[in-house]
Structure formats: structure tokens, C-alpha cells
Write a structure and sequence with these properties.
Layout lengths: L2 H8 L2 H15 L1 H4 L6 H14 L14 H13 L2 H24 L6 H12 L2 H9 L3 H14 L4 H14 L4 H14 L7 H14 L6 H5 L14 H7 L6 H15 L7 H15 L12 H20 L5 H19 L11 H23 L8
Helix pairs in contact: 2-6, 2-7, 4-5, 5-6, 6-7, 6-9, 6-17, 9-10, 9-16, 10-12, 11-12, 11-15, 11-16, 14-19, 15-16, 16-19, 17-18, 17-19, 18-19
Length: 381
């Protein structure tokens, strides 16, 4: 493809998105064509088999998601279209990768070619690779939640449906939704009214109605039989210190603390896309490397600010100590986040060391958020 043709294609948003989608599909073709179900796919397919056979899907020791996904798997099992469901799920999940990568790249004020390369780098990052290697739906759920946050004030009905649906399938963004509602009520702006921030629970509830009979089994797994201790959440860290705090308590403290800390700072739509995922991440009882896909826009925003700062000082032919420290800090934070894809290497380390190291990728997005928000003036109410 010649440079003029590429530039014309990138000048059109749909053209740039199509080019990114083709590139991502080519790079991730192994995910799309894997002959057997991947780890997480096997879990919900097996849980679907239980449901299709009249048993509770929550008898499966690894299935912890809300009912909609397993109900779909059960229908596919009964109808004989399981293979088609897996293929469609992978295609939609990869579309989620493209959407998250494109949204992330939009936070870099660079030329179209630079944004395309940045989006492709995000789509090929270790945390995205971690999600796809396990067949995990985090990219799709993150894309829906980020889309909801982006549309919250302009398209409140669509925003509420997107966020509510994402929580009903996998509650990755539950903390984000609770923070959004609390912050909009406490800090505004009051116009337009926060219908999306307050309406998403209704969308979630409506999507859970068909599986109402299954909810007691799901809720009984607040402390599920299977909790791998080698994840990256605050719950794991506190447990490692001998503090067994119930996950709902941790989530409530995180959300309330975030609302209080930011009560005097109205957030613009794009700032909400940076803040809410961090709140959600800290509130979750289980965090894996692929959970961090939700923070890709924040990572790009931090990188873009760092490049802008370095360029400004480079033009002056000097690099202040503060900027040098920023470079080290941002690079270490990104390394911690993407290095979490190999977090299993710490499983045999001393327990105290595991606690400290496992917290690094979980707290790194919060550090990046402080760095980015410190450079931005509060949004106008």
C-alpha cells in the first residue's frame, strides 16, 4: 500500500478502524482458528452442559460468572451449535480488542500513522495476549464498559444498556458503574441528568431476569469453592497479610473512597474513561493480567503525557530531574502491568514477597492515574 493511499485511508475513522481490525486479525489468527476450546471457554461450555442436563452450572468449581453466559452455552449445547457459538464469541471478543485499542490510541494526540501503530501495539500487548490465550472475555467486556463511559452524557440510553449488559455477563466494570453513579450524584455535572449513571443497574437486572432461578447458586459463591490464591487483587494481598476482609467490604471502601477523593473534581467524559476502570480494578476480588486490559486507555494517556513532557524539555536541550523521574516511573508502571502476564513465576516465592510483588500491577494504574490527572485542569461543571 502506497503512502498516499495509506494516509487517505487513515484520514477516515472507519478506514483507520478497518485497517486496524485487519492487522489485529492477522496477528491474532491463532486465537481465531484454535481447534479446541481454550481454558475459559471450556469452563463456561462445561457449565453450560451441566445446565442443559438440569443441574446447576455453579456445581462447576470454576464457573463464577452471572447466568447469561452459561444460559447461552446451555442453549448451544441443546441445539448442537456449540462450535458456532465459540467461533462467534472469538470474533466478537477480537472486535473488543480492536475497539479497546482504538479507544486507547485516541488518547495520544499524534498523527494518524502514529495512532495506528500505537493501537496495534496495544492490541499485541502481553495483557491482551494473556486474555486471548485463555479465551477470556475481558477485552469484549472492557470494550462495552469503555464505550458506555464514553457515551454516558451524549447517548445515556445506549450507555446504560452497554454498561448494564457488560456487568450482567461479567462484572468486570461493576465498581466502575458504582463509582460513576456516586460521583455524578455527589460532584455533577447536573446537566445533562445522570440517567446512564443511574440507569445501568436496571439494564443489568432485566438481563438477569431469565436466569433468576440461578442467582442463589451464584450468590452462594461469594466465597467460591475455587479461589486461586495466585491472582493480583487487594483481596489476595490482604489475605497474604493475614487479614480476611470480605470482598464486598473491600469493594465498598474502594468505591466510597474514590467518590470522596474526587468529590470536588467534576470529570469530563474522557477522564471518566481513565478513572472508573482503576476504581473497578481495585474493587474486584479477583484480578488477573487480562483484567488490566480495562486500563489500556489510561496507559496510553500516561505515555502520551510523558512523551509530551520529554519533547518539551528536549527542545530546550535539557532534561530536568523531575522529568527523568517521570520517565522511570511511567516505564516501571507499564512494565509492572504488562509483566503481570508472567506473574506465575512468583508463586513459589516467600509469601511476604508475593504480597508486595502481586500488588505492583494492581496499584500501577492508580499511580498512572495520579500522574495523568495531575496534568489536567478539572473539567467544567
Amino acid at each position: 500500500m502506497s503512502a498516499p493511499v495509506l494516509d487517505r485511508l487513515l484520514a477516515r475513522p472507519l478506514g483507520a478502524l478497518a485497517l486496524l481490525a485487519c492487522a489485529v486479525a492477522a496477528v491474532r489468527i491463532g486465537y481465531l482458528t484454535a481447534p479446541e476450546p481454550l481454558w475459559d471457554e471450556r469452563v463456561w461450555l462445561e457449565a453450560g452442559e451441566l445446565l442443559a442436563g438440569g443441574e446447576s452450572p455453579y456445581a462447576h468449581r470454576l464457573y463464577n460468572y452471572p447466568p447469561p453466559l452459561v444460559q447461552l452455552a446451555a442453549a448451544a449445547e441443546s441445539g448442537g451449535w456449540t462450535a458456532a457459538l465459540v467461533a462467534a464469541q472469538r470474533a466478537v471478543n477480537l472486535a473488543g480488542v480492536v475497539a479497546v485499542a482504538a479507544l486507547a490510541a485516541s488518547f495520544a494526540p499524534w498523527r494518524p500513522r502514529g495512532r495506528l501503530l500505537l493501537a496495534l501495539a496495544a492490541a499485541c500487548s502481553p495483557i491482551v495476549g494473556h486474555a486471548l490465550s485463555f479465551g477470556n472475555l475481558s477485552p469484549l467486556i472492557a470494550a462495552a464498559a469503555l464505550g458506555a463511559l464514553a457515551l454516558e452524557r451524549r447517548r445515556p440510553a445506549a450507555s446504560a444498556v452497554l454498561l448494564g449488559a457488560s456487568v450482567a455477563v461479567k462484572p468486570l466494570a461493576l465498581g466502575a458503574g458504582l463509582f460513576l453513579a456516586g460521583h455524578r450524584l455527589v460532584s455533577g455535572p447536573r446537566r445533562p441528568r445522570p440517567w446512564a449513571a443511574l440507569g445501568w443497574p436496571l439494564a443489568t437486572a432485566l438481563l438477569l431476569v431469565p436466569g433468576l432461578a440461578l442467582l442463589p447458586g451464584m450468590l452462594a459463591r461469594v466465597a467460591p469453592a475455587y479461589y486461586d490464591p495466585h491472582h493480583l487483587s487487594l483481596k489476595r494481598a490482604l489475605s497474604g497479610l493475614g487479614l480476611e476482609v470480605p470482598p464486598p467490604v473491600i469493594a465498598a471502601v474502594v468505591v466510597v473512597a474514590a467518590v470522596v477523593l474526587l468529590r470536588r473534581r467534576p470529570l469530563a467524559e474522557r477522564e471518566t474513561m481513565l478513572v472508573a476502570p482503576v476504581v473497578s480494578l481495585l474493587a474486584l476480588p479477583i484480578v488477573w493480567a487480562h483484567t488490566l486490559v480495562f486500563t489500556l486507555p489510561l496507559q496510553v494517556a500516561a505515555l502520551a503525557r510523558l512523551v509530551e513532557r520529554a519533547r518539551a524539555h528536549g527542545a530546550e536541550r535539557r532534561l530536568e530531574r523531575r522529568v527523568a523521574l517521570e520517565v522511570v516511573g511511567v516505564v516501571l508502571a507499564l512494565a509492572a502491568i504488562h509483566g503481570s502476564a508472567a506473574a506465575g513465576v512468583i508463586n513459589d516465592w516467600p509469601a511476604g514477597v508475593q504480597v508486595v510483588v502481586s500488588l505492583l500491577p494492581t496499584l500501577a494504574p492508580a499511580a498512572l492515574l495520579a500522574y495523568v490527572l495531575g496534568a489536567r485542569a478539572p473539567a467544567a461543571p
